[in-house]
Amino acid sequence: MAVNEVKPAEPKIKMKRSIIDVDIHNYTPLDVIKQYLPRAYRDQIDLWGWRLPGSLYLNGGIKVGQMADSVPPGGGFPGSDLNFMREQLLDPYQIEYGILTGSDYSCQASPDLDYAAAISTAINEYTLEHWLAKDSRLKGSVFIPKQDPLQSAKEIRRVGSHPDMVQVIVSSGAEKPYGHRYYHPIYEACVEHNLPFTIHVLMEGVGINGPNTGAGYVSYYPEYRASRPMVMAAHLASFIYEGVFEKFPTLKVVLQEAGVFWLAPYLWKLDEDWKALRFQTPWVKKKPSEYFRSNVRVSSQPLEPTPNPETFTQMMNAVYADEVLMFCTDYPHWDFDSPVRAFPKLEDSLWEKIFYQNAADLYGLPARGARKEGAK
């Protein structure tokens, strides 16, 4: 939903219990992370600028797709002020844990692999020092130069054992579908550290990444937004048919911010094609929907509206929501999902799975109330 018209903080509405938000975009500005880069790159930036690809499309909201009321009182970019994030999101919505997903994935589309690796390390160090060290509710995502799997694995092993880093994150824009064996070193490192591999929509058709549809580039942001499920669908099929979940049976993959209900007919198609064509991929031992249920998780935002409650219930069942779905707000983006508005009324057991337990199980987070209150 468009939330330029709705303030995210709704203090008059009482949450029934605390929740986990799996997609919070803390601002990771290039000018701030610059201090964490090696001297040679700092000098190059001073001379020639950042040399990073940018978005091709306009967005909703303000300041590149942010909510109108998410600018901190003292100025700055939405998502840049921890105290304001506490006031606007963490406190009023009783966020027990929030997974930070950063704001700038441009280094993952750069052809300069060493530069991309240095920026990834800088983002991780900045996140650890300026966010995770200051509030025990926040957990981080390991940024990697995914276009260089060996350096990516090195970065995962460098920082992945930190208790507050709970996943590895990449953009959905990529050179190859993520099931390709080219990426196996990344998954080996993810499995070693028990870190999910999260694919967040962004950077399709930018830099060295392929276009956002099989037909080529789209012209406008609504088209781009409509193409997101297509990109995720390609990655999902690649993981299954290239045998990633057979080679790495404990690997978990998260599909983030590409919608939810499109998965129902897609899983039906994957299962049907597997039955007819599985002789071509004999290493795929189970129906694709079984791999989906055991190895894939999906964030809730943006959740597609349905024409009536009956259809909503049917679609939730069809995508195995009680097993795979995890709530997220996408704060501070313009299409922010309030936890009190994003879903119609759910059965309590399903609400608990979506708003807490599925994420807690995936990220190894404690039971509700076990966290020490306040900042570290």
TrEMBL record:
- Give start and end of each Amidohydrolase-related domain: 28-365
A Gene Ontology biological process noted in the UniProt record is: secondary metabolic process
Name one matching Pfam family: Amidohydro_2
**Which ranges form a coiled coil?**
none
Q: What keywords does the record list, in alphabetical order?
A: Hydrolase, Lyase
List the molecular function annotations (GO) for this entry: carboxy-lyase activity; hydrolase activity
Q: Which InterPro entries match?
A: ACMSD, Amidohydro-rel, Metal_Hydrolase
Question: Its domain of life?
Answer: Bacteria
Query: Which cellular component appears as one GO term in the record?
Result: cytoplasm
PANTHER family tied to this protein: 2-AMINO-3-CARBOXYLMUCONATE-6-SEMIALDEHYDE DECARBOXYLASE, ISO-OROTATE DECARBOXYLASE (EUROFUNG)
Name the record gives this protein: Amidohydrolase
